[in-house]
Structure formats: C-alpha cells, structure tokens
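Input (structure):
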C-alpha cells in the first residue's frame, strides 16, 4: 500500500479538556487500575450501548467489507498517557477522523495515573461518537478495532484496552494490539513520505534513535536515564509554567522569546550571532545520551534564580528601611543627602550575594567559548556559534533557563541522530513523538540533514503528539497481515519495547 497524504482533521481534532474533580478521580481509582470492578464494567458496557444505539448489529468482517465495497476501515484508541484519542483510517491512508482530549493539571503539577484514567473514562464515549460521526462511518463498516497495548501508564492503558475489547465483542470485530512507539513511527512515515528513515523518537517517556533492520525496528541509541520529555516537564514544573496545552510548549515559547529579545538588542555590526548559554551538562556516550546531568544543572539554576529574586526583594526592603532610619536618627544640625546614603549602603558587585561557584565547570562540549566571549565551533549536528556564559553575564530568568535547556538537550539529540544516520547510511531522518513537534528541534535536525545532503521529515501537533489515528493506521497494517488477537486474551503492558514487534508489513523491503 502506498501511503497518501492524510485528510486534515476538523477543528475538533485537537481538544483541551478541563481536569476532572478530585472526588471523581478518587472514586474511579480502583476501576481505572484493575478494570475488574462493577463500576468499570458498567462504564465500558455503556460505551458500546451508547455508540451502537440505533445501529443494530455491527456485523462480521465480511459484512464490513461488503458494506464498504472492499475498503478496510479501522478504529483506533490511544490512551497511554495524558491524552485519549480515537482515530479512524482507511486502507488508502486517509485519516477520516482524529479527535482527542487532554488531561490538563494545574501549573507546577504533573498527572497521576488514577486521575488520568478517570479523565479518559469520562471522555472516551464522547470521542468514539465524535469520530464515527466525523468519519461518516457506522460500526458495520469497521473491519477491526485497534488499541494501544503499551508502553505507557497502567491505569490509562487499561481504559483504552477495555474499551477496545468491549467494542470488539459487542460489534463482532477483530482486535489488534498496537505498540505505541511503532504507532508514532508509522504515522510519521505516512504523513511525511519518508520510506526508510533513521527515526528520532522523543516524548515524555521515550528517547530513542531507531533504524529498521531484519524485520524489526532496532533501537540504535537511547537515553540511559531520564526521557527528554520528562526532563523538560520537570524543569517546567519548577518554573510553575502552565500545563495548557503542554509544559514543553511553554518552555519552547519562553526559549523563543529569549532568542528574539537577544537579537533585538544585538543588531550592531560586532554583535554576537547567537545568545549565550548557561553552563549545563553535555553527556553523549556513543549513540546513547544521559539527561540527568543537564536536568540537575537546570534545576540548580531555577533554585538559584528563585533565591536571588527572594534575596533581592529582601535586600531592597532592608535598604529602604535602614535609609529611613538614618534620615530620622541624625543629630540636630547634621544633614546627609539621599545620594550619600545610597553610596554608603552600596555593596560589592552582585548586590552583596557571593558569586556562585557551583556552576564553574567548563562549558559543555559543543559550546566551548573563548575567554573574551567569542563564539566557538559546534559539535557534529549542533548549531554553529554557541556561546557559553558565566552566571554573571546574563541575569537568570525563566526565558534564559528554558533557552539553554533546549539548546543543550537538542544538540545532544542531533549528535546521536547524525551518528545513527552515518551507521545506517540513511538518506532521511524522521522525528516523531510529542517533543518532535518542537520547531527548534526540527530546525536543528533540518540543518544537520542538509549538511549531509539528506531530507528531514517532521509533523505538527496533529500527528506528532499522541493520537488515535496512528493506532488505527498500525492496526490496519497489522490486520492486513493477520496479526489479530482474541478479545478474551487482550493485554496491555507498561513496558513494551519498540524492538519486540515483528514489522511484517515491511516484508517486501526485507526481500530486496
């Protein structure tokens, strides 16, 4: 099957929903986790009854083919993290519907599995109805039901798995268990047209560089500790950035603001080409990366910024009070001007705060600068002209921290991706996953690919972040290969590696 450009979804394709109440989340804790309680059974049974109302029996796979003139149509359910989505695709590669809902939490907080599962339970019926209506498809026309079997958070995964199993049993359809990671890869190949790319998969729970070999997607390199999305989210929580639409998006916007303001202030002839960077940590080990070091340095910078802001406010208040006391406490006939008071109160450079020495290591690899601040040379795949900065050069602000964090993290990713491309002799690089829709990361990958004479495939938030269409599409590929499971034996797993799945639909490439 030759993938075609997908039909853009309706405006309902991206939805942001308010979080459920704490009471609702707590009430559904057991149901979301085990999927065995009466409450869960009642909720899932309601899914099938509500959606199938007025449709009659859904019919068999043969009846589905007859109803659609032989066209294969698949409904997919995604629920591995804080997004729940339902997608419908057909065997022409067209995306017929792709609505989703996102669980949003207050700034400075993350999302707990039980509360996320409660949100998904409250939205999934509505999303199934919406997808069927938008695609103008009835249950009779569906060939199979696909769902995310992992990896992901257990309770949210259970919601999608139970919903898919229920629909398959009620409607008499085949069931397909889809690996979430492969869903991202195949959606990227479909949308961008990259046939055999080196894949950079970056999301809240995954950081992998992937290539296709011997019938499976092979992990060539990955994070040794923290996933990149988790790293970015943790810094965003410390900065108390909004989670709407996503903390990573807020970090991207602050970083962009810092760069734009820097360029506005430095337009003269001898101005540096690029903004300075905080001295963070740069850890690349072959084709693997380690983000815990840069995360620790970034967290230290946030704490230091908060400390400096607090001390500055306290010092300003103290100076004002002391100045007022001095004015009223002078002997009769003695006068002192405010300027003299300020001069006497003046402290050493830095406002009396001792110079920080915890971040005095050499600049990260790829960002080495001369003592006079001139730009140095970048490492492989990273942007040219990085300038490291001591903490006194630029005031610590959320924008400065976010900009530096992105530059370090993305430079590391570009380096290992370029090494993987050289190993695989790839002519294309494809970036997928939630972090993959970051425009700065796409720009850096595009520059690296251009230097190698290669192409770069990237997507926007409709298809890069978690969505039901990617699960439906892989479900379609697996269904055509006969990779279905009995609903009574359906499963979900929190750990489900990309390289555990036989990619049988690419068998023609293996024969070449």
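Output (sequence):
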């Amino acid at each position: 099957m030759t993938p075609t450009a997908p039909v853009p979804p309706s405006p309902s394709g991206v939805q942001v929903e308010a979080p459920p109440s704490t009471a609702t989340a707590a009430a559904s804790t057991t149901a979301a986790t085990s999927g065995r309680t009466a409450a869960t059974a009642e909720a899932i049974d309601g899914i099938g009854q509500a959606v199938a109302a007025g449709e009659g029996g859904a019919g068999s796979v043969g009846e589905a083919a007859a109803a659609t003139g032989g066209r294969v149509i698949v409904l997919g359910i995604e629920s591995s993290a804080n997004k729940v989505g339902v997608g419908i695709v057909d065997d022409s590669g067209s995306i017929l519907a792709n609505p989703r809902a996102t669980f949003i939490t207050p700034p400075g907080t993350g999302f707990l599995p039980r509360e996320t599962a409660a949100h998904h339970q409250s939205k999934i019926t509505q999303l199934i109805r919406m997808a069927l209506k938008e695609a103008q498809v009835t249950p009779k026309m569906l060939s199979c039901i696909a769902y995310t079997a992992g990896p992901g958070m257990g309770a949210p995964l259970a919601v999608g798995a139970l919903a898919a199993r229920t629909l398959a049993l009620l409607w008499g359809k085949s069931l397909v268990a889809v690996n979430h990671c492969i869903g991202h890869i195949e959606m990227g190949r479909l949308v961008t047209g990259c046939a055999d790319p080196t894949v950079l998969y970056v999301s809240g729970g995954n950081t992998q560089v992937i290539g296709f070999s011997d019938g499976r997607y092979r992990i060539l390199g990955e994070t040794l500790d923290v996933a990149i999305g988790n790293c970015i989210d943790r810094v965003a929580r410390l900065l108390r950035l909004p989670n709407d639409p996503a903390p990573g998006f807020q970090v991207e916007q602050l970083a962009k603001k810092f760069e734009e303001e820097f360029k506005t202030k430095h337009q003269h002839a001898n101005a540096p080409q690029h903004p300075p960077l905080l001295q963070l940590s740069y850890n690349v080990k072959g084709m693997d990366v380690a983000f815990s070091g840069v995360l620790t340095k970034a967290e230290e910078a946030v704490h230091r910024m908060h400390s400096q802001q607090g001390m500055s406010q306290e010092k300003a208040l103290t100076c004002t009070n002391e100045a007022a006391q001095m004015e009223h406490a002078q002997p009769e006939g003695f006068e002192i001007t405010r300027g003299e008071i300020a001069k006497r109160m003046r402290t050493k450079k830095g406002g009396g705060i001792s110079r920080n020495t915890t971040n005095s290591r050499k600049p990260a690899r790829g960002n080495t600068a001369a003592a006079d601040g001139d730009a140095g040379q970048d490492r492989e795949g990273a942007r040219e002209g990085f300038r490291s900065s001591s903490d006194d050069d630029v005031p610590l602000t959320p924008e400065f921290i976010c900009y530096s964090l992105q530059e370090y993290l993305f430079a590391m990713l570009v380096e290992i991706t370029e090494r993987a491309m050289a190993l695989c002799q790839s002519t294309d690089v494809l970036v997928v996953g939630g972090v993959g829709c970051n425009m700065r990361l796409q720009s850096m990958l595009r520059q690296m690919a251009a230097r190698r004479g290669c192409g770069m495939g990237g997507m926007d938030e409709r298809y890069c972040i978690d969505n039901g269409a990617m699960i439906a599409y892989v479900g379609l590929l697996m269904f055509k290969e006969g990779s279905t499971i009995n609903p009574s034996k359906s499963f979900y797993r929190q750990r489900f590696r990309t390289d555990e799945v036989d990619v049988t639909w690419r068998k023609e490439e293996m024969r070449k």
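Notes: Residues 292-328 form the longest helix (37 residues). The mean pLDDT is 81.
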